[in-house]
């Protein structure tokens, strides 16, 4: 280890939202943390779900984390450990490097394998998340931009057509508004694809978009 530079600390700071994102994805039974490898203070700089091992920001780096660093793998194989209170953990360690490829930090993930199954499932099942008043999700797992746009157009079209509060004459305009909100029209050839998918002229699409910009 060596003393980290201002740039090194900036890289680690930028990684902190990754810690929160992984913890949000896997829930309260997965501890996620960021170790700084600054020689002056090799310690935890960010941690989520620290109740699993009882650690907080400022806790020292572990001997096992140092061992994983010295193994030469930037992403370790998963390994089994135990928390101070005896929980069985499945862990992985990821080395964070700067532009010079110096190791400046470690991202560590520890999943509690002793957590009750039902509790784990409650944190993972999206159906238990707060219900959103929407008939579709704006995320489309497509293989190309065209496929993504067509899927989004069809999803929005289905939702709007089922909305009885909108008059038939306003539905195409509403579809264009919602597609614009999703950023569809920032993509290449999107207006042509939308016009074909909605069976309206491209000039109508452009008119709706001009109206939005002047509204």
Features of the shown structure:
215 residues, alpha+beta, Beta-Lactamase, 2 domains, five-stranded antiparallel sheet, 5 strands, 17% strand, elongated
Question: What's the SSE blueprint?
Answer:
Elements: H1 6-14, H2 16-26, E1 30-36, E2 44-48, H3 63-70, E3 79-82, E4 88-97, E5 103-112, H4 117-124, H5 145-161, H6 168-181, H7 190-198, H8 202-214
Antiparallel strand pairs: 1-2, 1-5, 3-4, 4-5
Helix pairs in contact: 5-6, 5-7, 6-8, 7-8
Tell me about this structure.
It comes from Shewanella atlantica. Residues 153-210 form the Transcriptional regulator DauR-like HTH domain. Residues 12-118 form the YheO-like domain. It holds the Pfam family HTH_22. This is Transcriptional regulator. With 215 residues, this protein is of the alpha+beta class. The protein has two domains: 6-125, 2-Layer Sandwich (Beta-Lactamase); 132-214, no CATH class. Helix content is 41%, strand content 17%. The protein is built from eight helices and five strands; from the N terminus they run ααββαβββααααα. The chain has helices spanning 6-14, 16-26, 63-70, 117-124, 145-161, 168-181, 190-198, 202-214; strands spanning 30-36, 44-48, 79-82, 88-97, 103-112. It has a five-stranded antiparallel sheet with strand order 2-1-5-4-3, with helices on both faces. α5 (145-161) packs across α6 and α6 crosses α8 (202-214). The chain is elongated, with a radius of gyration of 24 Å. The termini are far apart.
């Amino acid at each position: 280890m060596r003393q980290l530079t201002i740039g090194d600390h900036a890289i680690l700071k930028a990684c902190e939202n990754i810690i929160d994102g992984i913890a949000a994805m896997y829930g309260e039974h997965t501890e996620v943390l960021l170790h700084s490898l600054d020689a002056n203070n090799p310690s935890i700089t960010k941690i989520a779900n620290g109740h699993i091992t009882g650690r907080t920001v400022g806790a020292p780096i572990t001997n096992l984390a140092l061992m994983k660093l010295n193994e030469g793998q930037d992403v370790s194989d998963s390994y089994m450990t135990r928390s101070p209170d005896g929980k069985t953990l499945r862990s992985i360690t990821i080395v964070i490097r700067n532009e010079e490829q110096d190791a400046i930090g470690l991202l560590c993930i520890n999943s509690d394998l002793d957590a009750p199954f039902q509790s784990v499932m409650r944190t993972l099942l999206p159906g238990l998340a707060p219900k959103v008043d929407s008939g579709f999700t704006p995320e489309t797992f497509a293989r190309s931009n065209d496929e993504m746009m067509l899927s989004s157009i069809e999803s929005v079209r289905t939702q709007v057509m089922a909305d009885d509060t909108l008059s038939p004459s306003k539905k195409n305009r509403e579809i264009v508004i919602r597609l614009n909100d999703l950023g569809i029209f920032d993509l290449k050839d999107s207006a042509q694809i939308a016009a074909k998918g909605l069976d309206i002229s491209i000039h109508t699409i452009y008119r709706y978009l001009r109206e939005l910009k002047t509204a």
